[in-house]
């Protein structure tokens, strides 16, 4: 399984559409076996779901995310865990252990701007 996390300085970046990098984790048998960071290279909003699909990501952990981005991820078959805060590595371990706290209705709402598409 490949898990992506919106990533900045070890933490889960809170605005999906503005993330500059994702940390990608590869897990086998409930254990992290590989991890690396990829840059979005200025890709924003609509291109991010395609970037993750191209990286063969199965799951995304993020903070806030707009409805359009949620739909794009669903279209790509990427499972979403939104509304998550804190340390990226700890969140992935929590997901693998079945104890990740997330908000299935997470929406980005920062002063009228949008985080999705």
Could you explain how this protein is built, in words?
- With 117 residues, the protein is α/β, with parallel strands linked by helices.
- It has one domain (2-96): Nucleotidyltransferase, domain 5 (2-Layer Sandwich), CATH 3.30.420.130.
- 23% of the residues lie in helices and 27% in strands.
- The chain is built from 3 helices and 6 strands.
- Strands 1, 2, 3, 4, 5 and 6 form a 6-stranded mixed beta sheet that branches.
- A hairpin with a 2-residue loop joins strand 1 (2-8) and strand 2.
- Helix 1 (46-54) runs parallel beside helix 2 (67-75).
- The longest helix is centred in the middle third of the chain and has 9 residues, at 46-54.
- The chain is globular, with a radius of gyration of 13 Å.
- The termini are far apart.
- The model is unreliable at 110-117 (pLDDT under 50).
Please tell me the overall pLDDT: 89
The total strand number stands at: 6
Gyration radius from CA atoms, angstroms: 13 Å
CATH superfamily: Dinitrogenase iron-molybdenum cofactor biosynthesis domain
CA-to-CA gap between the ends?
A: 26 Å
Order of helices and strands: EEEEHEHEH
What's the CATH first level?
Answer: Alpha Beta
Shape: globular
Overall domain count: 1
The share of residues in helices is 10-25%
Uncertain segments: 110-117
The CATH architecture comes to 2-Layer Sandwich
